[in-house]
C-alpha cells in the first residue's frame, strides 16, 4: 500500500510540474501570436500601397496606348481582333482593353479575398504576399483583352459606364462621411471647448473660399448673357450653398457651419470641374483653343488629375467602415485592418471610372492628346455628380429629424391607444 501511495504521489507531482510549465509557456505563446499578428498587419497595410502603384501604372498604360500606342506598338495591327491597321486596339478601344485587364485583375483579387476576416487565413497571405505570382497574373490580365473581339470590348465600355457611376456614388458617400468626421472633430462639445475658435475659423474660411469660387466662375465662364448654361450651373450651385447653410443652422438640425462649409467648397469644385470639362472650342469656356502640342501647364494639370483620382480611389477603398451597417463591431487583434474584398472592388470599379475619364464617357470618339475628361458628356456627369452630392448631404442632415418625428408620432399614437383602452 505504501508503494502504491508513493507512485500516486509521484504522478501527482509530475502533473503539477507539467501544469506549472504550461502556465509559464502560455504567456509566451500569446506573445508570439501577438508578434505574428503585428507582422501580418504591417504587411497587409503595406500591400495597399503596392496595389495603388499597380492601379496607377495600369491607368498610365491606358493613357499611353491612347495617345502613343499606334506609334510605339505597330505590331498590334497584325492581331485579327485589332481590325484594320490595328485601329480597334488604340485610342478609345485601346483604353477600354487596358481598363478591362485592370478590371479583371482586381476582380480576381476581390473573388479570392472578399471572405477574409482573420490575418492568419490563407487568403490574407495571398492578399499581402505572392507578388511575383500576382505580377504574372497582372500581365496576363492586361494581355488577354487584346485578343477579345471588338464587339465584346464595346459591350464592356457600356458596362463600364454603369460601374463608373457606382464608383462615383460610393466615392460621394465616403467624402460625405469624411466631412462628417471632420465636423465632429473640429467643432466644440462639452469635452473639447477649446476647439470652438478653430472650428469657427475653418467654417468662415471654407465659406469665403466658396463665395470667391462662385464670383470667379461668373467672371471667367459667364462673361456674357449668352452663356446661359454656365450661368445656370453657377447660379444653381450658389443656391445649393445657401440651402445647405440654412439647413445646417435650422433649430431642429443645428449641425453648425463647418460641415456645410466644407461641402460647399466641394460642390463649387465640382461645378468648376464640370465647366472646365466643356469643349475648348466653346466661346464661354476660358480654356485655350485646341493645340497640336501640349504645353507644360496642360501636362502638369493632366498628371495632377491622374494622381488625384488615384488617391481618391485609394482613400475610398480603405474606407469600408462608411458602408457598414453595424458600427459597434469590436476589432480583435487578429482581425484584418481593412476589408480586402471591398478594397479590390473599389479598384475594379475605379478601373472603369478611369476608362470613362480617358475617353470622356464617349465610346464613339477619341480624346485629344494629354486631355482627360473633356467633352459635354463629362460635363453633365460632373454636374449630376454635384447635384447628387448636395442631395445626399441634405438628406443626411434632415434624416435624423424625420426619424425622430416618426418615432414621436408612433409613441403618441401608442399612448393614445393605451389611454383609450383604460376604463
**Residue fraction in strands:** under 5%
Mean pLDDT over the full residue set: 75
Roughly how many Å is the radius of gyration? 29 Å
The major pleated sheet works out as: none
How many distinct beta strands?
A: 0
> Share of helix among residues?
over 70%
Low-confidence stretches: 288-293
Q: Which geometry do the CA atoms define?
A: flat
What structural class is derived from the secondary structure elements?
mainly alpha
What pattern of helices and strands is seen along the backbone? HHHHHHHHHHH
Any descriptors?
423 residues; 11 helices
Descriptive overview:
By secondary structure, the protein is mainly α. The chain has one domain. 72% of the residues lie in helices and 0% in strands. It is built from 11 helices and no strands.
Q: What is the fold's blueprint, element by element?
A:
Elements lengths: L1 H71 L18 H23 L8 H7 L2 H13 L6 H37 L9 H26 L6 H22 L8 H19 L19 H22 L22 H19 L17 H46 L2
Put the structure in a nutshell.
The protein has helices at 2-72, 91-113, 122-128, 131-143, 150-186, 196-221, 228-249, 258-276, 296-317, 340-358, 376-421. Helices cover 72% and strands 0% of the residues.
Amino acid at each position: 500500500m505504501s508503494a502504491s501511495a508513493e507512485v500516486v504521489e509521484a504522478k501527482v507531482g509530475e502533473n503539477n510540474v507539467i501544469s506549472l510549465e504550461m502556465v509559464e509557456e502560455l504567456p509566451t505563446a500569446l506573445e508570439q501570436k501577438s508578434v505574428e499578428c503585428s507582422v501580418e498587419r504591417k504587411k497587409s497595410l503595406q500591400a495597399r500601397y503596392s496595389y495603388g502603384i499597380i492601379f496607377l501604372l495600369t491607368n498610365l498604360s491606358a493613357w499611353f496606348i491612347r495617345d502613343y500606342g499606334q506609334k510605339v506598338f505597330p505590331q498590334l495591327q497584325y492581331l485579327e481582333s485589332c481590325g484594320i491597321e490595328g485601329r480597334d486596339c488604340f485610342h478609345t478601344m485601346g483604353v477600354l482593353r487596358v481598363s478591362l485587364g485592370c478590371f479583371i485583375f482586381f476582380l480576381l483579387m476581390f473573388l479570392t479575398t472578399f471572405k477574409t476576416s482573420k490575418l492568419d487565413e490563407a487568403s490574407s497571405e495571398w492578399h499581402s504576399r505572392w507578388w511575383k505570382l500576382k505580377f504574372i497574373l497582372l500581365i496576363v490580365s492586361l494581355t488577354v483583352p487584346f485578343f477579345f473581339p471588338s464587339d465584346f470590348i464595346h459591350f464592356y465600355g457600356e458596362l463600364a459606364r454603369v460601374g463608373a457611376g457606382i464608383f462615383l456614388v460610393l466615392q460621394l458617400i465616403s467624402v460625405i462621411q469624411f466631412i462628417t468626421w471632420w465636423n465632429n472633430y473640429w467643432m466644440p462639445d462639452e469635452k473639447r471647448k477649446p476647439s470652438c475658435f478653430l472650428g469657427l475659423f475653418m467654417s468662415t474660411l471654407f465659406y469665403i473660399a466658396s463665395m470667391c469660387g462662385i464670383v470667379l466662375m461668373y467672371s471667367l465662364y459667364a462673361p456674357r448673357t449668352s452663356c446661359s448654361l454656365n450661368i445656370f450651373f453657377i447660379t444653381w450651385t450658389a443656391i445649393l450653398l445657401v440651402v445647405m447653410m440654412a439647413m445646417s443652422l435650422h433649430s431642429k438640425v443645428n449641425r453648425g457651419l463647418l460641415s456645410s462649409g466644407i461641402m460647399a467648397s466641394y460642390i463649387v469644385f465640382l461645378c468648376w470641374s464640370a465647366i472646365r470639362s466643356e469643349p475648348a472650342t466653346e466661346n464661354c469656356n476660358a480654356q485655350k483653343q485646341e493645340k497640336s502640342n501640349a504645353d507644360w501647364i496642360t501636362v502638369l494639370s493632366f498628371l495632377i488629375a491622374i494622381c488625384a483620382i488615384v488617391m481618391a480611389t485609394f482613400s475610398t477603398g480603405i474606407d469600408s467602415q462608411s458602408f457598414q451597417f453595424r458600427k459597434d463591431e469590436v476589432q480583435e487583434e487578429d482581425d484584418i485592418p481593412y476589408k480586402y474584398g471591398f478594397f479590390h472592388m473599389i479598384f475594379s470599379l475605379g478601373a472603369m471610372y478611369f476608362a470613362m475619364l480617358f475617353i470622356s464617357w464617349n465610346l464613339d470618339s477619341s480624346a485629344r492628346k494629354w486631355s482627360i475628361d473633356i467633352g459635354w458628356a463629362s460635363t453633365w456627369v460632373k454636374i449630376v455628380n454635384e447635384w447628387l452630392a448636395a442631395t445626399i448631404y441634405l438628406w443626411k442632415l434632415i434624416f435624423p429629424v424625420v426619424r425622430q418625428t416618426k418615432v414621436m408620432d408612433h409613441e403618441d399614437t401608442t399612448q393614445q391607444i393605451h389611454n383609450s383602452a383604460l376604463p
